[in-house]
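Project outcomes to date are best conveyed with an example. Our students and postdoctoral researchers have been running inverse folding experiments weekly, and each run begins with a structure described purely in tokens. The record below, which covers 122 residues, was selected by the lab manager from last quarter's runs and is presented without edits.
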């Protein structure tokens, strides 16, 4: 078992578990605003579940790399699509603002619940 720290919670899961599925199952929303309704449901095509991850996870694959190379994301960003990430070790997850999570303001971090009470859809 490995630990995920996100939104002030510590969650355990099996090695190789899908990050998006684990977070949603534990009531940690990986989407901002209307993206929780309008998203690809985990197939890696919309880019709305982008998060910043510290720790050991699976390598970037072609689908995720392709989506992260399109605006509003940037190929140089440190963000990952939670739906395409397999958890391989203990990790810390941070969510940023913006419809796609592409912003620079922290919405929630590993040790803190929500920072912003509003979600910006910029």
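After processing, the design step wrote out the following sequence:
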């Amino acid at each position: 078992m490995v630990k995920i720290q996100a939104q002030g919670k510590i969650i355990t899961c099996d090695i190789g578990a899908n990050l998006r599925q684990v977070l949603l199952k534990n009531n940690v929303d990986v989407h901002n605003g209307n993206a929780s309704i309008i998203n690809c449901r985990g197939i890696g095509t919309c880019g709305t579940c982008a998060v910043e991850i510290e720790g050991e996870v699976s390598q970037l694959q072609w689908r995720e790399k392709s989506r992260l190379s399109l605006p509003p994301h940037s190929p140089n960003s440190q963000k990952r699509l939670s739906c395409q990430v397999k958890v391989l070790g203990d990790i810390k997850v941070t969510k940023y603002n913006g419809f796609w999570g592409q912003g620079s303001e922290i919405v929630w971090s590993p040790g803190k619940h929500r920072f912003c009470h509003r979600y910006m859809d910029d």
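The chain has two helices and six strands. The beta strands are 2-6, 9-13, 50-57, 79-81, 87-96, 106-108. The training component of this project remains on track.
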